[in-house]
Amino acid sequence: MSWLPDDFVHPVHVPVPGTTLHLRPIREADTALDYPAVMGSRERLWEIFGPAWAWPNEKMTYEEDRIDLLRHEIEIAAHQSFNYALLNADETAILGCVYVDPPERTGSDGEVSWWVVDDLVGGEAERALDALVPQWIAADWPFRQPRYLGRDIAWQEWLALPRAS
């Protein structure tokens, strides 16, 4: 049994209200944009995602990022999990990501997390994304109990929960 209904169609373009930014599924071809975004914000991202996902590794190479994005692209096509890139209007820069995943821990039917590059932290774009994500998940995704990691539950609390079966 899938974690999503068989007839679910994932969104492919999601405007971020009040900005020129949008979300779309990430692709292997985005590596040239993703790698500098991730590595340019690596220390802060490691503080957020490191304990749970061991990502992004301090020595992550461009090739490792490309392989990771290819994995994400394959998982999206198979509806196993979703990684959405936050892009500027002409898609010349990745400015963050949103992850929509099956539950790893008990108590939810979908787990959602997101980040923006260091330059956007605390600014209008981050606030707009923070407002959008829960509304978007409620409107366009089939979850009854989504969990927002690092938002409605601290990462350490989430890691302490029993693993989902």
TrEMBL record:
Molecular function terms, GO-annotated: acyltransferase activity, transferring groups other than amino-acyl groups
Naturally occurring in which organism (per UniProt): Micromonospora jinlongensis
Organism ancestry: Bacteria, Bacillati, Actinomycetota, Actinomycetes, Micromonosporales
Stored InterPro entries: Acyl_CoA_acyltransferase, GNAT_dom
Protein name per UniProt: N-acetyltransferase domain-containing protein
Cross-referenced SUPFAM superfamilies: Acyl-CoA N-acyltransferases (Nat)
Domain N-acetyltransferase, residue spans: 21-137
